[in-house]
């Protein structure tokens, strides 16, 4: 399970501020909209929702939606939940901590072969191309959605950030491949004059 940063509560409140949701709907929304910039453990969804209800920040009710033959619980933010969310939104964000294993592997690249590094970079480029495509698809999806009771422009902004990040990482990987390939040729020339 991912480390709980204590922000799960605000992720859920923010989503519930848009509309009442079931735990399953929250899970799907996390996968589609937030996965490129926020990792939330699925094992945290239901305990967090239960805690929001206990704290009076949300209420639960039986949903008319059924999944796997079972009724679903629908969660709705309360006025106290809206205030809690508003208070959190007004605070300055914490400094982001990024972790890219590929950067560690490139940093220690003198301990492996050029081909291993180039393979890692090829996979990284493909992964970023897929993520760019996914984010563009998400933007198209929300632009085509109708009948939503909230402003989608903020969701588009987070997806646009993802596109910029993944495009930059792809460009870096292409440049890194060129540098490693050129370095490999230079090292070969030095060893075999």
TrEMBL record:
Domain Transcription regulator PadR N-terminal: 12-86
InterPro entries: Tscrpt_reg_PadR_C, Tscrpt_reg_PadR_N, WH-like_DNA-bd_sf, WH_DNA-bd_sf
Pfam families assigned: PadR, Vir_act_alpha_C
Domain (Transcription regulator PadR C-terminal) ranges: 98-179
Gene3D superfamilies: Winged helix-like DNA-binding domain superfamily/Winged helix DNA-binding domain
Name used for this protein in its record: PadR family transcriptional regulator
């Amino acid at each position: 399970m991912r480390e709980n940063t204590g922000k799960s509560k605000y992720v859920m409140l923010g989503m519930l501020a848009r509309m009442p949701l079931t735990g399953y709907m929250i899970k799907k929304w996390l996968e589609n909209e937030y996965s490129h910039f926020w990792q939330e453990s699925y094992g945290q969804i239901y305990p967090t929702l239960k805690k929001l209800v206990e704290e009076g920040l949300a209420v639960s009710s039986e949903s008319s939606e059924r999944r796997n033959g079972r009724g679903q619980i629908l969660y709705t933010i309360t006025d106290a939940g809206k205030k809690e969310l508003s208070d959190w939104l007004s605070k300055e964000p914490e400094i982001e901590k990024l972790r890219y294993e590929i950067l560690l592997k490139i940093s220690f690249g003198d301990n492996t072969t050029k081909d291993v590094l180039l393979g890692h970079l090829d996979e990284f480029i493909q992964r970023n191309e897929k993520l760019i495509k996914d984010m563009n698809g998400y933007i198209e999806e929300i632009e085509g959605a109708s009948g939503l009771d909230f402003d989608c422009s903020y969701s588009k902004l987070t997806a646009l950030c993802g596109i910029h990040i993944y495009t930059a990482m792809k460009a870096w990987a292409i440049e890194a491949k060129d540098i490693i390939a050129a370095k490999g040729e230079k090292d070969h020339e030095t060893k075999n004059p």
